[in-house]
Amino acid sequence: MIKGFAEAVYKKYDGTAYDLMNEALEKALNMAGIQRSDIQGFITTFLPGIFDGNIFLHFFPDQLCGYLGINPKYIDSLDYGGPSVLAGLYRAEKLIKYEGLDNILLLFGGKGSLVRQTRETVDSYENLYDGVTNTPYKQLLSGYSYKNPLSDYALVAQRHKKIYGTADEDRARLMVKQRKNGNDSGYSMFTGDISVDDVLSSPVISSPLHLLEIVYPVDGFHAFIVSKSPGKLRPVKIKKYGEAHWTKLPPELEEIMITPASESSRNFRDEIKHCDAYELYDSFSITVILQLEDTGIIKKGEFGKFIEKTDISSSGDMPLNTGGGSINRGQPAYMSGSVLLYESLLQLNGMAKNQVRDINSVFINGIGGWSRNHSVSMILGD
Q1: 194-211 per-position pLDDT tens digit
Q2: Smaller CB count within 10 Å for the chain: N or C?
């Protein structure tokens, strides 16, 4: 059960990544009512550049524990990209149940602004270093210009238009509704009403994706403390769980419009349809569409009809990305999973400004890795 959770998120943070993660941890400790000495487990992740521009940090979790002043019995670093924090929550619950540990800290984030300023991404950060490459398949992935994951998802969106007739206006309508949710949440970074025309008139970054349907990397950390007891919070835990790992690189996929979410959600599709709210990974507008389809919420090719008729607000018939998603909150260090988990916990604990009424369960799906290598699906509730 989650005893404490907090965020420290900024568009651009002037201090170090270490200062930033310490701020998030201190807030989570205060909510949980525990001390640093009470932490027995630690789970995190690392991506190139997100820790003050370092392409690599040797024995990374050890360095973080030393800085934070914690001495856990168990440490781990998960390398799944966006859904890493969700996989970490599952592992933390198992460690508590089967290993007798208590108070496991999940700490995820970094400084996305530093990477953004280099005009590279975490997938291409090695371009700043002569003779350094993060894969022997770089030419297969990059072609003439390395824009992963943007150009990859743009290709998916283009194919979705061709095969299923999904219009640019359909994706734009999703962005308009998510922005409204972000406005209502009271803590969204990007605010103000937008229209379908606003989305479609924003610059095309990689055809057909426009600026207003692409996530913006920011600086931030989320801290979650998983414990035997919930403390003052609702006893929220994982009710259903699945994860899937497809190790093929994007150019080797038989069909780029199918994601590992189709596998990670397979064993509890009926339960998914009866959840009270949905938080789906939104690195791009098309990412949300793929997950709606692959988790069985809608059929392939029916998104246009779905988004036109469905009220996805917190008071609507299908609350979706109720905090506005990471497209409006900002994406800490190129990973959105912690944004989804944080909003889910706000809703389940009755802390949200735009509160879903009578909420007892939230479906979360995270996707990440090399565009779509990994997926974690879960239902949270009590």
Answers
A1: 999 999 999 999 999 999
A2: C
